[in-house]
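Task card 7
Instruction: Convert sequence to structure tokens.
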Amino acid sequence: MQELQRTPLAEQVGALAAGDLALRFVEWFGFEELARTGALVNKRWYAASLVFAPPEAEFKARPGPREIFDGYQTLGAWSHAHGISHAHDFPGSNHPSVANPIAARFDRCFQNGCGAYVIDAGNQGGHRASIGSFASFVEHLIRMNVGGQVLVTMRAEDLASWVKVFQGKPYYRGDPVSDDDFQPTWDPPAGQFRLYLWPHEQVEQWGDIDSARWKIVVVDIGADALVYSTLTRSVTLEHLSATAQDKYLMCRSVPIAVEEMLMRGWFVANMAFTPIYTAFVEYFGGLLIVSRPDRRDTPEKRYLVELLRRDLKTYLAAEFPLAVYVRYSRLTAGPSRPPRPRSHSEP
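Output:
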């Protein structure tokens, strides 16, 4: 890379930048990110940055942002009430029969009356330790005389990975339609489990989805974004959320889009995320903002998005009691395919 050289022209540009050019520059182009970075340069750049990025405490107290950050405070209080999670550690279960450290995390979440938010990108061969660990967790529940029905739904291409782990297990029953003994509201004897594996598309088309009740629902979205998933667009995710006692979300990637963070949190911990989720949707006019630039068309909205991105990223990584980080990679901000025309039922 060619090194920058000190030239008469560069010195003239530097002299101009020492005046009010910094303010005029960022005002004209609206480069709020550049302005905030430039705030580290000198006082003039700091003054320019305030055009787009007022002091954080002052900004959060404004109507609009205030309601969203009030919801975030509720979220933080919920986390403290459920105990701070060290997401990258896998402490042992309170029960000696759980030797698998990831299964022990699942067990701890279950004992706390919660589900789990599991990020497992898998190793180079594509193997995900979280799937086998979930099987160990289910068998631990059976030994503890816990009973119920479990539904695991995944992308069609990931079905084989789940079947490989559960094939031959006495409690694996295929899918609800092919199981002649399936009962939507089955009240099992102690220690009796029925586990069903079903791709997203078939769950979405299932006519009895409203009547079925589940001890645990696992939604494995793989490397996809939940907010763009057909489960969300078809309202299937809402049905599963309403009919499950505990919810486990499994994915391969850590999101960077604010709406994806909110959607994942809302599914796993509805009560905790609903205040901030609702305030966010009301302020922006909908959940989707990456694919809808018209919803973030002012410096205030863009600044708010950056603050939420920073805070939620930190929260989900370090404080969220349900987080189980196995292996992870980043998820891009936008959809994995070009967005299709938006229907009235979409967020």
